[in-house]
Design brief:
By secondary structure, the chain is α/β, with parallel strands linked by helices. Helices cover 33% and strands 22% of the residues. It has 25 helices and 31 strands. The strands form 7 sheets. It has a 7-stranded parallel sheet, sandwiched between helices. A 6-stranded parallel sheet has the order 16-26-25-17-24-23, with helices on both faces. A 5-stranded antiparallel sheet has the order 2-1-4-3-5. Strand 29 and strand 30 form a beta hairpin. Helix 10 runs parallel beside helix 13, helix 11 runs parallel beside helix 12 and helix 24 crosses helix 25. It binds adenosine-5'-diphosphate and zinc ion. Zinc ion (ZN) binds next to loops. Zinc ion binds next to loops.
């Protein structure tokens, strides 16, 4: 072989990331069809490769000259799918960072960054969609001709409001559109053509609540900024016009008008001909927010959330990367959207736990967003009334610009928080006499009542009065929850469901089972009995299972249709309920004494957030909290709305313990059907990972809930003051178990995962 030829062959190796949970890339030869046209072979393009007995679609990470494997062992790739790379430099760098930082398999990271259609190999642009419009004849003919076919008539009338309709839009209106449309085409009223799919808002995200008389929407159109808002906006404008990376923490009390500040920053960015990425928590993406943004900014908007179907997702992704969409609004995974003209990122309610992905690639969208802003050299705004300790500490240390809104925008003071001491009064079905009285009083004044109880179902325990045994899930270390309306017992951890039995399964006594404790369903029944005139709305995961149901219930709460709203943490998030006069917290004591070190942080955030729903217009709102621990220092901070005091205290405790954000955690989790195996694997991991200066490896322990869904769970915690040491030790161990035969074998006997910066320790 001549050296010339050899060189050519050498340069034909593709290093490919495939969607498998392995922390490596795989080498392939260039596919035959591309051999002649080498200029086409670009890194970051998709490629179909043989993988075991399967064919997988991966991404070319590198086109290289040498492989560590002999050439004759390498298989050719099957097909190159793209002529050019599909990730731009900025997003690519962020994805590589993500893979390094979270020690996540690169193939899985890239998989997470592509919509399903792209992962499955479709063209980058979504397929054209079928649309219809009126013909010349259809426009001029008299609709009286259609009198005898009401469906056709309705369709033609629809075209008078909107000149082009897609099959998707027909589907939203009626399932039986097919035949009448066909008839209209045959009669020459309608004609069909096709076009690139437009950005569309899905049915349940449509303009519910978009009502011209709506106070909030009107206010959104023109407000005079408060002094504090104006100051924050000035600083943000300076950052935006500076064309450099900067992270601003916008800490504004509930009702301080953070949205107006975001809007001013967005406006500035758009007028600089740049686009904006807005990330919101899972349930922060309400039709109301969408409507507000649409009204305020007359630019194409792409919305990305879990309710989209694959085509809609692909379409939004495409319009964003083509820079058609000037604003991209979405939940966690929207952080992966490629936006060539990105000029600003906003993360609303940045403390929210839904930004952290809890399986597969366990990334935090806020942290990735900050990294992306750095790569793109643009500002990012993190906003919250109750920032995470991580962001708060960064602001205190001067790494973030700290912008504060200390007053409400609407001349309304923050609500008054009072405690009801449960040591001094009885609770019946979740309500103390004082709480009932407060509810009565509030309803009397024509105001809404918001009740917070973070426990769904009817009763958390089903308990035998004879043998004192609770009904337990046979697959988890947890009690079953009574769901009375459906007469079922459910496990909230694994989803197990069984019949509600009245006889004890342990001691076989007849009719001995009691329902102990209160869940939302039980309190709902009690409230309905106690306040029969009031319209009651329950918002929890059970009442919002259907798609679009949560948005509907929240809208009912907001519009004032309901007098009493009872809900779990779903109601604590940044909703604007204008008519709520009081908030009642029925139970929060379990959060004060939890084994999870983040529990008090979360509880403080939840209570301050839910309090913020009270009295957002006109007079002062009231917050009443039932507790058995009224002297707990936690409540002193809460009553004073003293987030800073509370956080300072918490941060100093965390510092003393070396906990986040002062120390860094990584959690290695393992689970197995056999009790001993998970622990055994983790003990080996601890022994194998070796010593690393500055990293403390705890002992392998059973998880706080050891058995879940029939599997035994254990965990191993790594703590370090330096991220780099932690990362180095874990990388070394990952390499070891990927290469050492015996370690590999042991690892294959359990299901394990690594969580860097874990949020939840269960
Ligand atoms: P936050 O997100 O900080 O809790 P919002 O952005 O929801 O607060 O604003 C709370 C309410 O105050 C909204 O109804 C909003 O329209 C109103 N608002 C915001 N800024 C102003 C202002 N400068 N003047 C009058 N009303 C305002
Ligand atoms: Zn279970």
């Amino acid at each position: 072989m001549s050296s010339h030829l050899e060189k050519q062959i050498d340069a034909l190796i593709l290093s490919v990331a495939v969607p498998v949970p392995l922390r490596q890339t795989f080498d392939f030869l260039v596919p035959e069809h591309a051999l002649k046209n080498q200029s086409q072979i670009q890194p970051r393009a998709r490629v179909k490769v043989p993988f075991g007995r399967r064919e997988l679609i991966g991404v070319v990470v590198e086109v290289k000259a040498h492989s560590d494997y002999p050439l004759n062992k390498l298989k050719p790739a099957i097909e190159l799918l793209d002529e050019a790379g599909i990730f731009d430099d900025q997003l690519w760098a962020s994805l590589l960072w993500l893979s390094r930082y979270y020690l996540a398999p690169i193939g899985e990271v890239l998989e997470a960054a592509m919509p399903l259609a792209i992962r499955q190999g479709s063209g980058l642009a979504p397929a054209y969609e079928r649309v219809w419009r009126l013909t010349e004849h259809g426009r001029s003919a008299s609709i009286d001709e259609l009198k005898r076919s009401p469906l056709q008539l309705a369709i033609v009338k629809r075209f008078m409001q909107q000149s082009i309709l897609s099959s998707n839009e027909f589907k939203q209106e009626s399932k039986s559109w097919h035949t009448p449309v066909k008839s209209l085409v045959e009669k020459g009223w309608l004609e069909e053509f096709s076009r690139e799919p437009r950005l569309s808002i899905t049915p349940n995200m449509s303009h519910e609540g978009d009502d011209a008389s709506d106070v909030t929407l009107k206010a959104a159109l023109k407000v005079t900024l408060t002094d504090e808002q104006a100051n924050a906006v000035d600083e943000l404008r300076a950052l935006i016009n500076n064309n450099a990376f900067a992270c601003a923490l916008l800490q504004g009390v509930t009702g301080s008008g953070k949205t107006e500040v975001y809007f001013a920053a967005i406006e500035q960015t758009l007028s600089n001909h740049k686009s904006v990425l807005i990330l919101v928590p899972e349930i922060g993406l309400t039709p109301q927010l969408v409507a507000r943004i649409e009204r305020r900014f007359n630019v194409p908007l792409a919305i990305l959330h879990s309710g989209l179907n694959d085509t809609e997702r692909h379409t939004a992704w495409w319009h964003a990367r083509q820079s058609h969409a000037k604003i991209v609004l979405g939940t966690r995974s929207a952080v992966f959207t490629q936006m060539p003209e990105l000029g600003l990122i906003v993360v609303d309610e940045e403390h929210d736990g839904s930004f952290k992905q809890q399986d597969s690639v366990r990334y935090h969208a806020r942290d990735l967003a900050v990294y992306r802003a750095k790569q793109a050299n643009i500002p990012i705004i993190l906003g919250s009334a109750t920032p995470s300790m991580e962001s708060y500490a960064n602001a205190l240390a001067g790494r973030y610009t700290h912008l504060r809104l200390t007053k409400r925008a609407t001349d309304v003071s923050l609500p008054k928080i009072e405690l009801f001491d449960l040591n001094k009064q009885p609770v019946v079905e979740g309500l103390s006499p004082a709480m009932s009285e407060a509810i009565d009083h509030t309803l009397h004044n024509g105001k809404q009542v918001l009740l917070f109880l973070n426990r769904r179902g009817y009763a958390p325990v089903h308990y035998c009065s004879e043998c004192k045994q609770a009904a337990k899930c046979h697959r988890c270390d947890s009690n079953l929850t009574v769901h009375q309306r459906v007469n079922r017992l459910r496990c909230h951890h694994c989803g197990y469901e069984g019949r509600l039995l009245h006889d004890c399964q342990s001691c076989k006594t007849k009719d001995s089972m009691l329902e102990v404790g209160e869940g939302t369903q039980r309190v709902e029944a009690a409230i309905a009995a106690r306040f029969p005139q009031a319209t009651l709305l329950r918002i929890d995961r059970d009442s919002t299972q259907r798609k679009g149901e949560l948005a509907k219930l929240l809208e009912q709460a907001r519009s004032g249709e309901a007098d009493i709203i009872l809900g779990t943490q779903l109601i604590t998030k940044g909703h604007d309920f204008p008519n709520v006069g009081m908030v009642g917290v029925l139970e929060c004591d379990h959060g004060l004494y939890s084994t999870d070190f983040r529990a008090t942080e979360t509880l403080f955030q939840q209570l301050l957030q839910v309090s913020g729903r009270a009295g957002r217009r006109e007079d002062v709102g009231h917050v009443y909290i039932q507790t058995r621990f009224p002297d707990h220092p936690f409540f002193e901070y809460l009553k004073g709305h003293d987030f800073d005091g509370f956080s300072e205290q918490l941060l100093s405790e965390r510092k003393a313990a070396g906990f986040p954000p002062h120390g860094h955690f990584a959690l290695l989790r393992a689970e197995s059907a056999h009790q001993a195996k998970a622990l055994q694997f983790l003990r080996r991991a601890k022994a194998d990972c070796g010593h690393q200066d500055g990293v403390l490896v705890m002992d392998a322990v059973p998880a706080p809930m050891e058995r879940r869904a029939g599997r035994f769970r254990a965990q191993l915690l790594f703590i370090s003051q330096q991220r780099s040491s932690l990362n180095a030790q874990l990388s070394r161990w990952l390499h070891y178990i990927a290469t050492d035969k015996e370690a590999k074998k042991l690892a294959s006997t359990v299901r394990w995962s690594l969580d860097v910066d874990p949020l939840d320790h269960y």
